[in-house]
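Database export, one record per block. Field names are fixed; values are copied verbatim from the stored entry.
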Amino acid sequence: MVWVKRGAWALLGLLVVSFVALAAWEPFMAHPAKHPPERIYTAEIVRDEFGVPKIYGKTDADVAFGVAIAQAEDDFFTLQDVVAMSRGRYGAIAGEEGAQFDYVYYLLDARGTAQREYPKLPDDTRALFEAYAAGLNQYAEENPDEIKLTGLFPVHGEDVAAGFVLRQPFFYGLGNVVGPLVAGEDLRREFGPDIPGFPRDEEDCACIEAPADAEAEAQAMTGIHPLPWGEDAALLGSNAFAVAPEKSGGPTTLISNSHQPLRGGVAWYELTVESEEGWHFTGANFPGSPYPFLGHNEHLGWTNTVNRPDMADIYRLEMNEDGTQYRLDGEWRELESKTVFLPVKIGPIILPIPREIYRSVHGPVIKNERGFFAIRYGGMGSVEQLDAYYRINKATNFEEWQKQIARMAIPSTNFIYADADGNIAYIYNAAIPDRPGLEEVKANWRSVLPGDRGELIWEGAVDYAEIPKVINPASGWLYNANNEPFTAAGEGSDLDPAEFSPVLGVERKQTNRSRRAYKLLSEASLLDRASLERIKYDTAYEREGYVADMFDALETLEAEGELAEARDLLLGWDFTADNEGDADSLALLMIRDYMSAEYQNKPELPDIAEHLQKAVDHLNEHFGRLDPPMSELLRLRQGDVDLPLDGGSDTLRASTTWEVDEDGRLSLVHGDSFIQWTEWPRDGGRVTSRSIQPFGAAITRPDSPHHTDQMQLFVDHRLKPVYFWRDEVLANAKRRYSVTNAN
């Protein structure tokens, strides 16, 4: 019996050691952080009545240090997630969901790209990122009780750069390529007209047949559930408007109306920056950035909308029998392969999940049961966007600004521009691959390409002159609502799609927001502030596209009883999500999935009877009726504040996606987010702007008065003043303090 007891104790000891090892291994395996170089930074932070920070410093680097401190004070919770993503450690915080991002971190070689390219950036740009990292480190050192993950700090500028490398490609839809490839699903790729001579059909299409159990295959590949970037990534949208003085009857106007998730790593954070080195800008950034991504300075401003060009090509590799080599131009090459460990937090332990990462000369390689597939995408292997964003922050006129955009360093997103001189511009910005011409290679870029032809491996982006752009149109106005670039300025001012090569892969799609904006802007004789407000907060749908498809299906639906009653209620709807019609709630529940099918290029629309029955069941369960006021269904919720909303999926007043709460209400998670309305007076006076956020500046600080203090204004379609000029800032200061790492 003694040996049995000894064996039991030994087993228990082994289990304890194993538990401790699983709980503690991850920080030691993580990418070691470099200590930032020693430098003293000092910044002043001034907060207004809404807690929005204005950060001042002697140098741009001092300001970047202050930006990190200010944002950490308001949202250190999210900043840590972003830092963990930029170091391949998010799974140690968020479990399986986080490990999905860590897999892509390794797949795209985010760290390797940053290590190779970050040192090549100009000194002043790197100084900005080092200062920002120093600010994060300073806050972490002073607030150790808030740290989520051991060994996450200190961070270095290179870590911040790696985060940019990881996140940027997903704004133009790389997730819609990576996710299906990992899962072995069909690729739904549609980027405009067929390439002449290369029709898309069942034998020549950009798709890979799905295996019988795609989900199981994805889990086998990654050790986690299928990547979640399909639907949500495609729904990222925005509205943007620019109006020249001749059309406004007064100022040059720029309206930034971004549609982003209201929380998390790509939620907007409002700030103003000013240094003695000439950097003076107000707008918003994402967690993990030292500067605003959109907004305005004294001279000019811009905003962005997501565009969807064909930025990625897929190559099917011809492999040898043991899967270690691929054929290229008649020769066998070694397939790069390395094992990485994805940290997956499960309860109190972190499991190391080993996964193999592959790479060929084409780019990242994904293996599924159909074979090996390489991906090559716009902006791959570059960090120049870090420098380009900084330069356009400091541009003083259109020529300087356009020079930076023309670098094609920012891989994607439309730019809508306006300035104090009355210029307005729309740039279909995209680092579209510089693919060989059709006559040269006889290849269908819409399809999965043969990986053995080196001539199909392009280098760099097309020239700036090749992408669509409209500058100072005769109409006097410009807009984009995630639509094709060929409806941007009105009849007589729009571009002709025939003038652009189909190889560019420019999308040929409209959104309901685009149809409404184009109609309303075209009909207006004057686009003054009142007219633009009506357009921006418009809640109507046009019976076109997927909306027409849904209502055509309703008209032919044979139904009885309550389902017939719901059908007839919808057929009498006035096509506005304004909280006034009896059918608004039912329409809200119906339209989103039809919109999603359109955005996602899904081969089939939702089944009308099943979809309608689901909506009926939801309303009956939670409201006991088919026609509750939409204001009772759609809510803006944060903490103890619970407010009614208007608008819908794909209306100009965008309430795009939501979570269904336990009480059956729809809590908005994505839609209208940061709004900024900027005006440069015609007489040359000072620029002014107004803005709003859905919640408040202190997004993850429930105890802060600025956690929810903008919500009522947001719901009421109201904007608050932006204090851009120093005298305004000081006159409205509610808190003023200095931050430094000199301690």
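Remark 1: Residues 242 and 254 are 5 Å apart (CA to CA).
Remark 2: Residues 237-264+292-310+388-443+460-536 form a domain with the Glutamine Phosphoribosylpyrophosphate, subunit 1, domain 1 fold (CATH 3.60.20.10).
End of record.
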